Every structure is written in C-alpha cells, then in structure tokens.
Amino acid sequence: MQPTTPEPYSAPGKAVWPTVxxxxxxGHAPEAAPAADGGAPDTVPVDQPAEEAVPxxxxxxxxxxxxxxxxxxxxxxxxxxxxxxxxxxxxxxATHLQPAWxxxxxxxxVGPAKRCGKSRLLDVLTETVHEPMLTINTTPAAIFRSITDxxxxxxxxxxxxxxxxxxxxxxxxxxxxxxxxxxxRNRYVTRVVGNDHTPHRFATFAMAALAGIGDLPDTIMDxxxxxxxxxxxxxxxxxxxxxRRDTPALHDLRDRLAAWARPLLDEAADMEPxxxxxxxxxxxxEPLVIVADLAAGPWPRLAxxxxxxxxxxxxxxxxxxxxxxxxxxxxxxxxVAQREVDSLSTDELLHHLRQDLEGPWAEWGRKGLDPRxxxxxxxxxxxxPGNVRLADGTQRKGYTRNKFLDAWRRYCPTVHPVGTGxxxxxx
Length: 427
What we know:
Blueprint lengths: L49 H4 L7 H16 L5 H13 L11 E6 L6 H9 L5 E3 L5 H7 L6 E4 L3 H4 L2 H6 L1 H9 L6 E6 L4 E6 L4 E6 L4 H4 L2 E5 L14 H19 L3 H6 L8 H17 L3 H22 L4 H13 L5 E3 H10 L15 H9 L6 E4 L5 E6 L4 H7 L16
Helix pairs in contact: 2-3, 2-10, 3-12, 3-13, 12-13
C-alpha cells in the first residue's frame, strides 16, 4: 500500500502551502512567460534600474499607508540612511502577510555602542507589527509553542547578552537554532510532550527583529535585513516616545495596514518579483519587495534600491570588518595602556585582556581566552606569535607591537586605553 500525501493545509483567508516546500528543485518556480513577439521572456534584467524598465505604477492605498508608517518611524528614531528607513517600513508591513511568505526575514538592528536608538526602534516596532511577542526571559520551548499558522512577530532586545560570548552562545544554542530554522517555512523542531512522551513537531516559521550591541551570529546576520544604527549627531533630534500619547496612533495605523494587507494574501503568495540580488539575500528581501510591488507608487523603486545598496554594503562590511576585529581593538588598548611597549608576552597580554570587565575575554571558552584561541583569532589578520624580548631582558613567546600596525590602521584607527576615554565602539 502506497503512503498517502496529506492535502495542503488551507484555512479561510489563508494562502495555501504544500506540506513541504523544497526550494531549488525543478519546477519549484514557474518559468518566465515568453514575450508576445516570440523573443526573450518578459523580464527585467537584474542590473537594469526598475525606473528605466517600466513607468512608476499608480500608487494604491497601501502606498499611502507605507508613507504614513515611514513618517511615524522617522518621528522617533533616526535611521542610518533613507534606504534603512524604507527597509524597516517594508519589514513592518510584511509582518502582516506572514502566511504568504516562503521566507521570514529577520531584522538585525545592531550598533557599536549603547544609546544608538536600537531599543527605541523596537518600541515602535512593538506597536506596529503583527502580534508582537517580546522574548525577554522567554524560553525557546515557550516560543515555538506560541508559533502557529498565524505566527507572531518575535522581538528580541539586548540580543548581545544572548550571543555575545561563546559561553552565552553555547547556553542559548537552542534559541539560535530556532531563529535560524524559522527563516524558512516547513522547518520544524521535534519534542516529546505529555506523560507518555509522544513526539510532536513544532513550527518555527516567524519573522523576528533582534537588537543588540555588535554583530549577531553570522548565521542570523546572513538571514537578516541589517540596520546598523548609530548615535545621533549634534543637531539631530527626535520626538520622545511616550506610550500613553503615541501608542493609540500607532495601533490605528497597524490596524489599517493589516486591513489593507489581509485580502492580498493569495496574491502576495503567488508573486515572484524581479530581484536586484540573488540567493539568500533574495530570499530575505523578497517579502519586502513584494509588499512594495503591492503598494505600487514609488515603493517598488525604493525597495529595490534599498535592497541592492544595503546588501552590497553588508558584503563590503563582511570583507572589511570581520567579527574578530574586536580582539585587535582590545589589544591595541592594552599596548596603549602599557605605554606602547615594543612587545608583550602572550601570558601578559592575556592577563590584561581578561582584566577588562567590559570585554568578553574573561568568559571566552571555559577558562577565559587562552593562547591557542588568541592565536586563532589573530591568524585571520596574518598575525602570529613568536619569541620576543621583554623589558627585563628575558625572552618568551609573545607578540611584537609592529606586527599589529597594519591591522590597526585598517580595522580600529581610533581607540582609548582600557578603562579610559569614551565608550568603545568596536562591538
């Protein structure tokens, strides 16, 4: 007897999805329709600006709502660019169409230090996204038990306290796994439930916004629309957010967004927009571009421009500023604090790094950063230990200051000694 395949789940007003979706297999996406004249398919080349390919479509009511939402966000938070503001606006609107998406883009709101507006942005998101679920002190088990066919929008503040050090990351590995798996539809976790320990599958698919100091784990950043916040400059001002005064207007806007989006679920699920990027970046940005195409007006152009520029910027940042650059800045502070000595032994350098209470090195691994792990971090910058002569005339394994000069110029041009100067900005 052949096993039967269950029918796709379909509830009234919801997009229909197959039981298992496997992107990349033949027939997963329909081929482009041939042109009426028998020539090339009617598609727009990826590198051709949208505004040159087609005239700007007539704006819909959704276009007005997106513009209103963009203005509301800009009242309370200064985003790093207009493209970032457009992206956040579209991401919020996309949360109201989650049943239509193949991928649930993360919004990574990161900054180099405190007071960059990360938490304030999350305040505004909480009042405008679909069914916000704040994950403060919430276990992964509680989260995936809360994810249904109508998933909430997960909001994670101070994500650096979850993933900031290897010890923290190891402790919260299940949370990272949930966030990674939940980027794509039909990725489940299996847990035993009840007194008889019956295996049960729990869904993980849900959009999520995560805010924190420094970059999040690479696996999360790679699935995210990345917003790199920065402190307000002199002369920049925003309206203070006051729940009693501001929440009613945001809720009214949220409800109007949901009412506009809901009838468009099936249409959104069937759309396959031309994207300016490929692979995972296209998967992540596709819901935002679809929302823009549904809204019409200037939004299709703005969405694709934001997508292309922000994805390119992240690719360049990944090349120029790898996450281990934090160790370079902290080592430079040690040398500055030691009056720019020519060399330091490995043991002495590690001692000073572990003494920095603001740094991650005391809790790096099981017993703090050790010589092997230090060497591994620095090897990416072509810096290796050797025999060095110390101030007392002895020789020991260590590092000479001149080996760091080129890397310092490239990755951390301005630093202050440990415990002095302004707050660190390396992560």
